[in-house]
Description:
Blueprint: H1 10-81, H2 83-92, H3 98-111, E1 115-121, H4 130-133, H5 138-150, E2 158-160, E3 165-172, E4 182-187, H6 190-199, E5 204-210, E6 217-220, H7 235-238, E7 243-246, E8 252-258, H8 260-311, H9 321-334, E9 342-348, H10 352-358, H11 360-377, E10 383-386, E11 391-396, H12 401-417, E12 431-437, H13 445-461, E13 467-469, H14 475-496, E14 499-508, E15 516-524, E16 530-531, H15 537-542, H16 546-562, E17 572-577, H17 579-582, H18 587-598, E18 605-610, H19 611-616, H20 618-631, E19 634-640, H21 646-650, E20 657-660, H22 662-665, H23 672-687, E21 691-694, H24 700-709, E22 713-714, E23 723-725
Parallel strand pairs: 12-13, 15-17, 17-18, 18-19, 19-20, 20-21, 21-22
Antiparallel strand pairs: 1-4, 2-3, 3-4, 5-6, 5-8, 7-8, 9-11, 9-12, 10-11, 14-15, 14-22, 14-23, 15-16
Amino acid sequence: MKTDNILIPQASRKALxxxxxxxxxxxxxxxxxxxxxxxxxxxxxxxxxxxxxxSVSDRILYEYQEYFSxxxxxxxxxxxxxxxxxxALHQSAEQALTKDYMKVLNELRNNIDDTRLFALIxxxxxxxxxxxxxxxxxxxxxxxxxxxxxxxxxQLFLHxxxxxxxxDLLQPLSTEHGSGHFLFVAFEPKxxxxxxxxxxxxxxxxxxxxxxxxxxxxxxxxxxxxxYADMLLNDNDLGxxxxxxxxxxxRWQLAIRLDPQYSIKLYQxxxxxxxxxxxxxxxxxxxxxxxxxxxxxxxIQVKQALAYVDSHDQLTGLVNRAYFxxxxxxxxxxxxxxxxxxxxxxDIDKFQVxxxxxxxxxxxxFLNVVSVALRKFLPEEAIIxxxxxxxxxxxxxxxxxxxxxxxxxxxxxxxxxxQLPELQKDSNLxxxxxxxxxxxxxxxxxxxxxALGQAVSLAKKKGRNRVQxxxxxxxxxxQHANEMEVLHDITQALKEDxxxxxxxxxxxxxxxxxxxxxxxxxxxxxxxxxxPPNDFIPAAEKYNHIRQIDYWVxxxxxxxxSVDQYSDQSTTYSINLSGVSIAxxxxxxxxxxxxxxxxxxxxxxxxxxxxxxxxxxxxxxLHFINQMRNFGCSFSLDDFGSGLSSFSYLQQLPVAIIKIDxxxxxxxxxxxxxxxxxxxxxxxxxxxxxxxxxxxxENSAIEALLIQMGVDYGQGFHIHKPELWSEPLEN
Length: 731
């Protein structure tokens, strides 16, 4: 596949190079792992062999000990059988006849295999039958002397002559006159050799070595290396043994090692296998890379095509709203200047007239002509977008605010100059243009679109074919700008946790022990100034930030209730919820989770919903109220009386408490109509078995009237001024 004609983005080129590096690195890692696995497998195999060698060495040691024990037992039995003959030989000493000695020797050879000869040793270690057996070898004399000295044989070893090799066993002589004397029996080492051969495993070498002469070999299974027989091994050779174990009551050590050539061959074979596997995997990796590269390039082609479709308007070829939104966001985040250019919004006035009068084909052609004219008119750096059917937006980073109004007027006049042959000369269209300066007061793309929308909307209201700058002295735009500023403050306050809670006591007129508070939220400015709710709640509700505030208030309330200072289980709290929150599908699960997290009893919480929000979101309100009431919470209806259909909806809402709107309470001591209204609400609530709270109790006269009417609770500055509610300071 040729890639020369494919425009590969820099990021994609880096991705391809990264993929190549990853594959190369992977191959190197695989090679290292295979080599490591080869050595590891060899080590494991050697470890297995060593475990076998450990078992083998223990088995041989056991067999040797059993063999020597068996020989001594047989010698002892033989003495019992030949007791008289042995005693006769012992008494005769140097006068003993050869025929008598040979008779006993033949019996001994018949009873015990591999017997060579026997001799009688006196208490001085001297043989009494030397005239028959001949002189002892020097090694035999050493062993006899050590046995006589210690009283038992403890240093068994092999004795060599020029023509033979044997070992000796010395047993106390059991005859009547043999106290302190020994029976000396010499044996061929056939069994010792056969046991080494019996337990030798493939690739292992077994050695019987002297313990008192380090490195001297007495027997070995290494038949091809007869040089080992009766020779000394150096320290390097001794270091190759896996196990060296001493044989008790002897001068021997049993040593086992793996064949050195076997280990080398095992490593070599493992490396060859690892290299072959690596070559195969490397080839697969290369083929994978080639395939991935081809697929990657095809993906780039498709992605570029799809990206263009996703980010551009199919009719005009201009970027679409999503792309423009992203471009605005990036521009605001990367611009270091407080004046980051101008954004413009053009809405063609009464464009639907062309579609209705001349058809959509002519309308589409007109939009194409408009897009071409805009490209020619605007600077190259400008980003031009078709937002909707007849709306266009531009971002011009270099345009100064002082030039924005004149530039916007030139754009407006440009539309009047656009002509289509199919259109009548008197059907020229106009456009309304809105402009906003991207300064420090603009913090995200959503605010840009809101500001542009407000500016264009105001231009149309003023008669169309106008330019409206957002940063102007128009009252509507000033109000909107103020709302945007408040919205920005709310967003930052949520991020920086700059909301604080106050609480105001709700007094029971019939129960002095009643302890209930309404939770009130305030916002703190960056400078520590407390901002009242009327200055930010309306903007939060209008621009959908009230839900986040409600969630914060609920969690903060539960947290404060859970700390020791406010752990009185008899104190209850009312929390206000907006209509947006009670319509939220997730609020029930979220609130239940918070109850469990902070271990708060649901009976201690009363949620307040305003009459207006409950009526607007009646279905959602009923669902949420019923869920929370089943969970254990209670509800009150706030600002009752301000709605147009209060009494008709009251019967549908399962609330336990009605809070009379303070506008009827605060002057009821001087306003008879309001006093009658409050009294009627109380009667209605009593008939419906609901409690009543009167807000805005500002003096003692109002409190007295409420008590006289039988109102259950009162709330206001006369009763308790809101107090800051915060966590206790740590000592």
